[in-house]
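Priority: low. Protein: Pentose-5-phosphate 3-epimerase. Input follows.
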Amino acid sequence: KRRAIVCPSLLAADQGALASEVNRMLDEGADWLHVDIMDGHFVPNLTIGPPVVADLSRRVGPRDVFFDCHLSVNNPATLVPALAKAGASSVTFHIEVVNGERAAELCRTIRSLGMRVAVACKPSTSCESSGVYDLCEAGLVDMVLCLSVEPGFGGQKFKPSVLDKVRSLRSRFPDIDIQMDGGVNPTTAVECAAAGANVLVAGSAIFSAPDPAHVISLLRSAIEN
Ligand code: DX5
Ligand code: ZN
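Result:
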């Protein structure tokens, strides 16, 4: 049985009430809070940054919150120290913007600041030729995020073509955390889990539901079963 982790994406939350949305999701059974940090360059959308994460960690304390920060930005390295200070638990950068020795170095920096590290790839990015496999083989990342939509916006349709990539990744790396993000709902979650994903992000599926706790438990059982 794989460790199941369900991560509501704050991108789908009421942006004017983020602190109470975080608390609400913890009450509903969230494991991690997925924070989409977007710079308006890597993706055509602009969201929140380290100062907001810092205030959220302060406001939801003393509860233990895991902030899973997905950096859809061109220059992730510049944000890492501020995110560590802000109380981020994990930092995910995109392999399309940092690769090779710079990616290895960024992984070491993130870990040296006490955070977990993950590498993300867009739907059309190959894990093999981009260097994601190399980072996994070197033990430099805790998790790989396979985007199942083009990053930028919530509410898009799940791309099943990504499942092959997840299957290959899982067969090569049985112990790594594999996260899927984009169009994940209780139906597509079954395919994600069958392909080997054990960490599921969902924005619209959770936030638009009348009973978010129920959706969270369906996502969790898709991974566990
Ligand atoms: C897409 C983001 C996702 C987004 C997912 O750029 O990385 O985290 O919030 O939203 P849904 O679950 O609605 O596809
Ligand atoms: Zn995301």
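The domain at 5-224 is CATH 3.20.20.70 (TIM Barrel). The chain has one domain: 5-224.
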